[in-house]
Specification:
With 87 residues, this protein is mainly alpha-helical. The protein has one domain. The chain has helices at residues 2-31, 33-41, 45-52, 54-78. The longest helix has 30 residues, at 2-31. The chain is elongated.
């Protein structure tokens, strides 16, 4: 039962991450073509874009954080060597 829950949470996390990344890239391209290309191709440009254009990028950023949170919860649930019993 817990593995099914962990798989479901992983799929939800994957969907949230995917939508967040696509939204972040779209918001960068809306700001300018160079921003969009930089976010897609260069490693730290997305962080610079996030800081400089917080109002435009915060929604997609928080979607990515929620996706990561769902993955972490799924990993904690599916881990067999937990120090506490879950079920």
């Amino acid at each position: 039962m817990l593995t099914l829950l962990a798989q479901g949470l992983s799929l939800i996390g994957l969907a949230l991450l995917f939508v967040g990344v696509i939204g972040f890239v779209f918001s960068a391209f809306r700001q300018g073509i160079l921003w969009g290309l930089g976010v897609m191709l260069l490693p730290f440009v997305s962080l610079v874009f996030l800081v400089l254009h917080w109002n435009r990028a915060k929604g997609a950023f928080f979607l990515q954080l929620w996706g990561i949170a769902f993955f972490v919860i799924a990993a904690l649930i599916s881990n067999n060597d937990l120090p506490w019993p879950l079920g």
